[in-house]
TrEMBL record:
Catalytic activity: GTP + succinate + CoA = succinyl-CoA + GDP + phosphate; succinate + ATP + CoA = succinyl-CoA + ADP + phosphate
Annotated positions binding substrate: 247
Biological process according to GO: succinyl-CoA metabolic process; tricarboxylic acid cycle
Enzyme class: ligase
Keywords assigned by UniProt, alphabetized: ATP-binding, Ligase, Magnesium, Metal-binding, Nucleotide-binding, Tricarboxylic acid cycle
Protein family: Belongs to the succinate/malate CoA ligase beta subunit family.
Role description: Succinyl-CoA synthetase functions in the citric acid cycle (TCA), coupling the hydrolysis of succinyl-CoA to the synthesis of either ATP or GTP and thus represents the only step of substrate-level phosphorylation in the TCA. The beta subunit provides nucleotide specificity of the enzyme and binds the substrate succinate, while the binding sites for coenzyme A and phosphate are found in the alpha subunit.
Known cofactor(s): Mg(2+)
Protein name: Succinate--CoA ligase [ADP-forming] subunit beta
HAMAP family the record matches: Succ_CoA_beta
Domain of life (superkingdom): Archaea
Record note on cofactor: Binds 1 Mg(2+) ion per subunit.
Length: 368
């Protein structure tokens, strides 16, 4: 879950990382009286706002008012701006970069720091980056900070502040269940202070239930995807005409691939996960039907998810939702014979292999 900049800075402020004075504006009446030069920053979950016109500078009340009016409701790279952050203007002497991210290959957090900030980290030569994996069991140690400031050749006063920020960033990364905590740029002011001029915080989606304080709507999700997420389903809309329900992300992806191979066009991705609850199966159909497919394919390899449970859920959904689209089911695994009998009694096509089911549903949906 990506957090808006203002949310990331709320976390920084909570943990003691210096951030500029600021306030949030969601409507023009929220604008306060002008006291000093400020930056008007659109709050969208994309980088490169400045290049896209999403940041304005104001040195008067009129410029502040105009900046807010221009940004609120504006479209930036397809996203509508609903909030802007009014932030004091900082006198910048130098911009740096620092982040802690999850290295999925090494299964460890990785610290990245450089004296070259304010630009995309991918554009910085590797020999100018300090990188170090942090053992998740041992955690962060002060020697890592000393190693970083030595690599970056920071002055003693700046080095002390920088080491404190590094230690705090790792604490945030652990305690807030983060996949990424990034400051770009981390500014050295003319007064010799370090301030986080921006924030990028990504919280592990599986930990969201522990962070009710953050309510973020992913702008890239469709309304149906958001509804599915709220109901606990992994669901992605596609542009085909065959609704797909399967159990396990790997099997669901394989189902999409196999459909495409047979010239079928999947309408969605829906992973039931491991469940032995007929209601969960039936409710999945409600979501798929809202995507208006021509046919529905259910692909189940029974283990934790027992085939007769799924069959009962399919029959329940067909009767309760008055489904008129053809349903084709592949059942294999625990209690598959029982499951196929339940489906046969309700005149629902079922097969023991995935390819048989796919060939049938593609034909019914108007493919081969």
């Amino acid at each position: 879950m990506n957090l808006y900049e203002y949310m990331g800075k709320q976390i920084f402020r909570k943990y003691g990382i210096p951030v500029p004075e600021s306030y949030l504006v969601e409507k023009e009446s929220d604008i306060r009286n002008f006291e000093k030069p400020v930056v008007v920053k659109s709050q969208i979950l994309l980088g490169g706002r400045g290049k896209s016109g999403g940041i304005k500078f104001a040195k008067s009340q009129q410029e502040l008012n105009d900046g807010v009016k221009e940004l609120l409701g504006a479209k930036i790279r397809g996203l509508t701006v609903t909030k802007v952050l009014i932030e004091e203007m900082i006198h910048i002497k130098k911009e740096m970069y620092v982040s802690i991210a999850l290295d999925r290959t090494e299964k460890e957090p990785i610290l990245i720091a450089t004296t070259q900030g304010g630009v995309e980290i991918e554009s910085i030569p590797h020999d100018q980056l300090y990188t170090r994996h942090i053992d998740p069991i041992l955690g962060y140690s002060d020697f890592i900070g000393r190693e970083a400031v030595a690599f970056m050749k920071l002055d003693p006063d700046i080095a002390k502040q920088f080491m404190s920020i590094l230690k705090t960033l790792y604490k945030i990364w652990v305690e807030e269940d983060c996949e990424l905590v990034e400051i770009n740029p981390l500014v050295i002011t003319e007064e010799g202070k370090l301030i986080a001029a921006d924030s990028k915080v990504v919280v592990d989606s599986d930990s969201v239930y522990r962070h009710k304080e953050f309510e973020v709507v992913d702008p890239e999700k469709t309304p149906l995807e958001l509804e599915a997420s709220q109901k606990g389903y992994a669901f992605i809309e596609l542009d085909g005409n065959i609704g797909v329900i399967a159990n396990g992300a790997g099997l669901t992806m394989a189902t999409l691939d196999a459909l495409t191979l047979h010239k079928g066009k999947p309408r969605n991705f829906l992973d039931l996960g491991g469940t032995d609850n007929s209601d969960i199966v039936a409710n999945a159909f409600d979501l798929v039907l809202k995507a208006k497919p021509k046919a529905i394919l259910v692909n189940i390899f029974g283990g934790v998810t027992k085939c007769d449970t799924v069959a009962n859920g399919i029959v329940m959904a067909k009767n309760k939702l008055s489904i008129t689209q053809p349903i084709v089911v592949r059942l294999s695994g625990v209690r598959d014979d029982e499951g196929r009998k339940i489906l046969k009694d309700s005149n629902i096509d079922s097969f023991p292999t995935m390819m048989e089911a796919i060939e049938r549903v593609v034909k019914l949906a108007g493919g081969n």
